[in-house]
Amino acid sequence: MRPMNSKFHYIVRGIIRDGDSILLCKQKTGDHTFLLGGHIDFGEAAKVALAREIKEEIGADVTIGDFRGAIENAWSDNCEISLVFDVEHNLSKETTPVPTSPDEEHLAFLWVKKDKLSEHTVLPTTLIKWLQDDDHALWGSTIEH
Predict the structure, then answer these.
(1) How many Å apart are CA 72 and CA 123, to the nearest integer?
(2) Pairwise CA distance, residues 96 & 140, whole Å
């Protein structure tokens, strides 16, 4: 059972593909990589939140596509539910985005080939299988019972 002072995060993430490459971000001071996105504000629609987060992170105007599934994840005193969507965009793996606001300068972005995802510390770990297999389940979890 988790401590009562645990932090809960309601997150939205986007799958941005160009051919066999996927756009990931990482904190410049860490080794973990993850899909672009972030927190959903209370009362905000998930698709609206994802478009807002991507605009804040890399300045791109995108269209949010199909819902791909949800993942529950826990670490130390944190727990999150991430809703994952496909993202329609005009980005190219030939150009790596950079942060477009001072609030996002702690992030770096990278295009990773689908078959090389296991060489990166992608979190939540369930995402690696999802991103490599288009017929994944709609639910994933890193929480053990």
Answers:
(1) 11
(2) 29
Alpha-carbon distance 3 to 137, whole Å? 30
Whether the full predicted model's pTM is greater than 0.90, yes or no, is no
State how far the Cα of 81 lies from the Cα of 144, in Å rounded to an integer: 15
Q: How far apart are alpha carbons 113 and 17 in whole angstroms?
A: 9
Average pLDDT over residues 48-68: 96
Instruction: Give me the pLDDT at residue 4, please.
Output: 56
Taking the CB of residue 85, how many other CB atoms lie within 10 A of it?
A: 22
* Mean pLDDT across 73-99: 92
What is the SS3 string spanning the chain? CCCCCCEEEEEEEEECEECCEEEEEEECCCCEEEEEEEECCCCCCHHHHHHHHHHHHHCCCCEEEEEEEEEEEEECCEEEEEEEEEEECCCCCCCCCCCCCHHHCCEEEEEEEHHHHHHCEECCCHHHHHHHCCCCCCEEECCCC
